[in-house]
Specification:
The structure is a single chain. This protein is mainly alpha-helical and about 270 residues long. The chain folds into two domains: about 80 residues, Arc Repressor Mutant, subunit A (Orthogonal Bundle), CATH 1.10.10.10; about 170 residues, GntR ligand-binding domain-like (Four Helix Bundle (Hemerythrin (Met), subunit A), Up-down Bundle), CATH 1.20.120.530. About 75% of the residues lie in helices and about 5% in strands. It is built from twelve helices and two strands. It has a two-stranded antiparallel ribbon with strand order 1-2. α3 crosses α4, α6 packs antiparallel against α12 and α7 packs antiparallel against α11. The radius of gyration is 26 Å and the shape is extended. The N and C termini lie far apart (about 55 Å).
Length: about 270
Amino acid sequence: MTSSAREAESAKAEDRLLALADHPVQRMTLSSQVAERLIQQIGRDGLRAGDDLPSETRLAAAFSVSRPVVREALRHLAALRMVELSNGKPAKVMPVTPDLLGVYFEWAVRQDIDNTVELHELRQGVEGMCAELAASRATEEEREQLRALAAEMRTVLHDTDQYAELDARLHLSIIDCAHNSLLRHLAGSIRGPLRTSIQTGLALLAGNPERLERMQHQHEDIVQAIIARDPATARTLMDRHIGGASRRIADEAARNKAHMQSEATGGDPA
């Protein structure tokens, strides 16, 4: 690169840097800084669910801030379900829960039908991994519970409400059998949308006994692969099972969109 070319490139880089001035740096409030420091301290001190934090007075002294700043920081952590606040008592560390993610997924699915399709894509990745891990990690008792659950599903195959309930229980049980707490929390956060998506998928199969039977066979095959301790097959079958449901829901979403566009324009769907 010639000297003039380097100078030109340097000038462009400087212009790009100066352009960042249009987006001023956001200063963190004192309470946000204290909240961040508290999160770090909780991890550094190895505090567990149920442990108390120091009093507001001690925290204020430790961080050299006022008690109202500490109080605001603790309210922020409470909103994130990280601590529990009680009048007259120290803040208490809360257990990890899927609550906040659950609110997010519930809201996302209610906002847009496309998010229901994307939820299935998320499920495919999470539950495929869980099926694979379950085949390696499930206890004998858990394997027997999965077998019994799949057998019970067959007895209510043509009762949509009961079948949907057992369907959700089976999928959540397989997730539990993976014995991975973070995967369980992630899956727990989509528990509500999961049941809704299962009901939606079953509604699309209503009145089609052959497809219902095929779906039940898929459940039984997944359970059998887990019982047989075959991780690769369990994952492949789960991917295929949820992938099929995802495609059905995507097709239905496309038809619904076309119908709505047709009604909006007063013409035929494209």
